[in-house]
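Researcher: Let's continue the batch. This sequence belongs to histidine kinase, and it's 549 residues. Same format as the previous ones, please.
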Amino acid sequence: MVRLGFIIALLALVGVGLSGFAAYRVHDQELAIENIALARGVDIHASLVQERLTERELLARVAAGLFKSPTVMKADMLKPLRASIYAFKTDFVMASWIARLQPSEFAGAAADLATAGYRNPSIRSFDDTPLDAEARGKTLDVLMDLEPRNSVTEGFAGRALNNSRVMGPTIARANDEGRPVASDPTPLQRENGPLGVVLVTPVLPEGSSTAAGFVSFSYELGSLMLANDEMSLFSVALKDPRVQDGEIVADDDGNVRARALVGNGPSLAILRTVSFGGRDWSLGYYPKMDTDLRARRTAMFVGGIGLALTAIICGLFGYVSYANLRLRREVEMRIGFERRLTAVIDELNHRVKNILAVIQSIVTRTLRHGSDMDSARDLLIGRIHAMSHVVSLLSESQWQGVPLKGLFEARAIPHADRIAMEGPDITVSARAAQSLALLFFELASHSDEGLSLVGKHPNIVAHWEIVGDDNGGQFNFRWEEFNTSEKTRRGDSDFGVVLLDRVAPEALGGQAKRYFTEVSYVYELTAPLETVIDMTERGRTEALARPVR
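Model: Same format as before. Here are the structure tokens for histidine kinase:
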């Protein structure tokens, strides 16, 4: 007993070590996979944002290039461009024409604004106040036309933007650099309007290096840079160029707001930089879930399975070892029963090893690398339950065989209520019963989980027949799922393919094939009757189970 306890303790120690190592490896792999998925999603989002920004710069360049020798004081400069601007289908808030006017052109520009129907055609300051004496003698950048025209935007026409805190420096930089320039984030159209940016592009007449005016497009930051899929692994934030430690984010409703960075807030996972309007914008990505915590949970699940299997193996080993010790004592006490007891022990070891080998194969194939743990857990429990069911049936019959129809009980395989059985009442051997139980479970568990081609769950017909006599007979089995197709039926797993195509046919010494018809999925198995109904195995089991006299 001391030696047995030492061996069981050693097995437990090895099992715990292997379970811990497996959990460690799964943690590292899951963490690496999660980080790769996060980085890939960030790269895709940053690429889409950059593509969106490039399209809007292209629209500004094209719009500026369509101007032909502009008369700067005209208030309908965007009229011939409206069709071209809207053809791009971009989500701008407002497009405008900003004319660079000399003091002598103020009166004509005001008259042109009045002719265009604007309610306040006077040339005035950006804050809607009259021009002071100093401004009347300087060149001013005046908003002369805009799109769309409504009750809010019409009040902007005629305003000089030179002294605007945001638009003044942006226009000056666009004029100096001769290319589209983006402003700092600013409220659009009103003081409490949505945060956005204004892209200003200089309009250069042919043969001139001096801008006659500027075309501008304003965009909301939410749709421009912060738009994101609700199912993504991260949320997006824009580093606020106006504040050293600030950022701009969009909430679940799409509302954009500026906030200060929180010292103990969520840590940024990845930073990406995009270019727009002659400047770089920094996008920060916050993961929505703790990848390390998720990896730890998966590792704990795998470790738990390993410990459970270790307990099962140690228990089985202890049981078998204890049975061997007990049988050994019986042999010592009853020398006359030595041969019978030896045969019983050999048979028990043989069957336990077979069961352990099958369980090991099931676990290894189900918990393969990269598998979904929730699906793997359900399949593992179902397959072991199918094995447990057939072992229970065999135990009730003292391992002399199982009625074939008994393998289709609802507690053993899913969708049993949708299976129509057609075939004679036959009793299959213990070896065949174990293979067929796993085969039926695999077929049933991969039948259509949703609706079929006709809007109903598919009906399943399990048909078998015996051809010929007992000596040279043949067992034919056909599984057919009606009203299903290759598109609606869930594909067989790796373990299922191996079981259906190789393990089950080889265990019965037969052949199998599976295919789709126009209205069904079919699996056919053909095997010699002598392997399905093994009289030699039944006779040996019956002899071992016969009471000793």
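Researcher: Any comment?
Model: The chain has 13 helices and 20 strands.
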